[in-house]
Amino acid sequence: MTTPGSPLAKSWYDDLLWETKLMYALSSAGGSAMFNFLTVYYQHTAGFSKVQIGVLQTLPSLAAIVAPPFWGAIADRIRDQRFVHVFCIVSGSFLWFILQYFAWSYEWTIVVIVLAQFQRSPASSLLDHAVLNMLAKVGGEYGKQRLFGAVGFGIGAYVTGLAVAVGGIYWAFGMSFTLCMSSLLVLRLIPPVRYGDDDGYTVLEPGEGKPKADPVSTPSFLENIRIVVKELDVLVLLGVVFLMGLMYGVLSSFLTLNLYNLSGGDAKIVGVAIICETASELPAFFFSHQVIKKMGTVNVLLMSIAGYALRISYYAVMTDAWSAIPFEFLHGITFGLAWAAVTQYVYSATPKGCEGTVMGVLNAIQNGLARALGTLVGGFFYENYGARIIPTASSQSAGCHKLLWEPKLLYALNSAWGSTIGNYLAVYYQHAAGFSKMQIALLQTLPSIASILGPPFWGAVADHLRNQRVVHVFCIVSGTLLQFATKYFYWSLGWTVIMVLLGQLQGGPASSLLDHTVLNLISKEGGEYGKQRLFGAVGWGLGTYLTGVVVSVGGIFWSFNLCLIMGFSTLLVLRLIPPVKYGEEYIALETDDGKEIGCSEHVPSFLETVRLISQKLDVLVLLGAVFIMGNMHGVFTSFLQLNLYNMSGDNAHIIGVAIMCETSSELPAFFFADKIIKKIGTVNVLLVSLVGYSLRLSCYTLMSNAWSAIPFEFLHGVTFGLTWAACTEYVFSAAPRGCEGTVMGVLSAVQNGLARASGTLIGGYFYENYDARMMWIVTGLGVPFSLAIVALFAYLKEEEEIAAPNEELLQERAALFSPHSGDPQGLKSPRQLTYDSI
């Protein structure tokens, strides 16, 4: 071991490793001075096309696939890592500097780039090797050294941006060469790697059974690979690195060019963006050691993926380049934390004496293979489709496919997202968090409370900002992340309450915002809202069933992982639907002459609408019936799955089967709702629904086998689907024209908010203090109460069924709804036509 009097001990203990910190800063500054401005040079100086730029930006990554492992193996074989490191810095810096003299030839530019990156790219992995080797002997945290690379990268990019803005793009090459050569002055102060040193080393993240080679002999490259291949966890981790590297490749190659073009050719924004990115790396690297120890490698990678989702989602909708700057601070999560975690984990699996080779392999996958492929893919789409992900439809011909598969798929994914955790939260609360049934009832009530507040608030924000798409994306991303993060707060009821409430406040409005988007699309493209919304029920059923299968195999926490996947998947389809454009004229749902109404027409306020509705006693009584039946529905949705789960011996599969049966029953109920209501009338539909409630509650009260309840789940289409369609149609006829959304919101608040919340609390109380059978008996009391209110409604109801709506109004109405936060809307095409074929 080192002695206190040795030069090694004096340099590193007394000076606090400043040599390593400065070396990282200079090395990264040299790279950032040029690499962040290469795309600008290719486009505005050399005049290459975006496809050519994509190829050129891919070449460094292709070279990085081979070079780091190659030069790392050379260093290990000749047992002189310092010589190889200096040679790579000098030759690579010189070749990158002379690139500026080959702008006249695309072919020669390719040759110089390949050679330059083949020599320059190994410098990073060789520096990591030297630093990790030193830290293993003298102590210290890798992240606290590596963060100075972020400092250098950010300062180098910002200063170079200023220099380029004043002196031109060629200044980037000169500054890069100067900084890289300066790093040699600091490198000489760092003791070289000594092969065959018998001091031993400390694994940064020790794992059980990790191979360690003989400290004297050095395994060959193939021997080292053979040892590492046996570690399946390392191979899978490298696969994750590859996938994340694809996204990193697109961001690193085209983000700065996109911002540069979007800002009108302002080179300063490139420097500002990069300095924000690298500033975020400082806390990420500084606390990486503690974060990794606290959360583990897996959770760090999940955080990184969530950060990517946020960044990419915003880049998809931005119209102002400078508005993207705050999202650049997420770079610390997407790159810093992930890189530190992966580096330490892979280093722990490296045989002694071959660290250079294995670190080169890691670098080759992240900065080579993955980045190359990501750059090629990004270049192709940038060249052929442009930078924006979300299409801008300025006319009807620029909209969706004539079959409208986009809204259908989006409804399916949106409902599947809600089903992944919505039907399994009660199981999670009881078996993972250990909450009591009354606590579960409280938690199950929170989504209903949030559903009263969230959609109106974010809808008003969207209207005020006149940018519905940004609000929609924000609600999806924030809601998904908050719902996913709920699983980390099982240890605290208070924090779980906060997370559930915030998650629903953010995620709940996504459904009403989706309705707004689809109705806006259909009003221009044509089609029936109901035939799009129908696929929400399909997605809900399939999502629940598949989640049940996954949970039964992998555990309840997988429902949260699926929530994250499905939530962000909706963004991929949402980008295909044109955004809502404010200020356009629309077709009134019901006017005397069917004329178009612009924004100047007076629309009654919320309070005016409520005053008008309150004057109709039949509507108020009907809302009372909806409230009572909503209480029964609230007990069903909150505790039926938990009851079946417990009675079946904790078989999560039965939850998926039950929900699948329920939602499949919605399809015919909603599809034929209009014909049934016209045939038998609203009152008789409500009576049929009460018969369905009686049958279901009788079964749940008497059942001794959970699977015997499955056939009764098909009555859900009668108890909910027909009832909701009938009530919606009746209340819709009383709504002032142009305010249907407000009135439908009142109906939704009564059914899915107040009624469901109170039903959940009542059910939880009896489930906690008595048992499931008593809970169903008490719930059944709602049937006679509902029957009495329906009788009063039949007495007060006007003589004509639903004010005898004319055929044109029936064509406008979209009465297809499900319990999954869908809001009823009216619909008519601009040509006053119906679309039965879509």
TrEMBL record:
This is Major facilitator superfamily (MFS) profile domain-containing protein. SUPFAM superfamilies: MFS general substrate transporter. Keywords: Membrane, Transmembrane, Transmembrane helix. It comes from Phytophthora kernoviae. InterPro entries: MFS_assoc_dom, MFS_dom, MFS_MFSD6, MFS_trans_sf. Its main location: membrane. PANTHER family: MAJOR FACILITATOR SUPERFAMILY DOMAIN-CONTAINING PROTEIN 6-LIKE. It is a multi-pass membrane protein.
